[in-house]
Write a structure and sequence with these properties.
Layout lengths: L20 E3 L7 H14 L3 H17 L7 H19 L1 H9 L11 E3 L1 H38 L3 H32 L23 H4 L4 H4 L9 H10 L3 H9 L5 H7 L9 H38 L4 H17 L11 H16 L6 H18 L1
Helix pairs in contact: 1-4, 2-3, 2-6, 3-5, 4-5, 5-6, 12-15, 14-15
Amino acid sequence: MELSSENKWNLRSLEAPPFTSYKTLKVININSLIKCCEAAQEFFGNQIHLEGDSLLLSRTVYRMKYKFRTDKGFKFMQKLNRSLKKYFELNFFCVIKDFYDLLPETVQVGSYLPTNNMLDYLIVRLQGLTALMNYVSESAKTAADLMEQRMSIGHFWKMAFYSYALLSRIWFLSNDIVRFCCKLYMELLPLRNVLDGEHNWVGIDYQFPSNLESWLNINKSENNLNSYQDQNFHSECGNKEDELSAEESDTLKKDKPKSAFELMVDDDEIGEVIHKKNEERIVKKRKKKGLKKKTNNSKEQIKDEISSLEIIENLTDFVILNKFIEKESNLRTQDRNKCVFKCLDGLEWKMLLGKIKKLRKNKKNVDKNLQLAKSIEILKASLCEK
């Protein structure tokens, strides 16, 4: 089963070699290989944050598809969404798990080990995965830059701000995956010759790059891929801070930004000092004034209600009732606040007049005194409701 394709790492559906094992005739040290597989299993088995962000990205792309269909930043977000789907379809965790299950805990003479073709398949898949996540990182960065431009313009800035935050998280997580993959590749590549078997699956023409960072032209200063080499970085920074001179520490204290409270205190214009007793007196006066106003308003409302009830009760004839309705209608056009039924709007006033007219046209109620009494009850009821 020989495949001589140079771009085997870029194949979407790559056929795996047969899952076979061989019997060792000598003791082999595979502790480093076991540690690499365990670390990879732990890392790729815990991708909850990236899964959540990819789901949010797919829903965001769906919501933005109509309004932002011509936007460049949105097009990069679509590319990013497709790339993340490919990453999860690859399922590198299962590839490592299948290889790790064939490794024994202790190797003795006669133990069964996986072939080197399976390790080559693992390394090739890791190479393609690193290239894919590097593309994800670049797409996320470009899309975030374009969304930042939209935020500065102010056009749909809320959606741009949300997308910018989501793309920033994806960029950070993809850089973390690229960093781990480059480190894992450097540790797995020297172990190709540990296992026995012919390298017939990968092909004779295929060449593994010695370093994925140089192969992908990754800028270490931007992505911080060499952070795993600087293990004592924080401790060195701490020692340098301890070695600061007294003059430098004084300058740092002087240049320390002041809070808003300190700026208010340092200001020359302090203002008038108000004592607590005077402040309590002012508050009490305000409360008393408010109470007086409320009581006056309530008394006026009671007087208005009494006077309006008296006016309605004095309607002893249909002639007086018609004059009252005509006067009320004219006042509503001039000044509604002077009306007896000032709480009723135009539609409610028309409905009230309709009820009275309907009562007078009713042939069953022939008695005019009864019609007048019912009309007055309708007027009182509408007044009491408001």
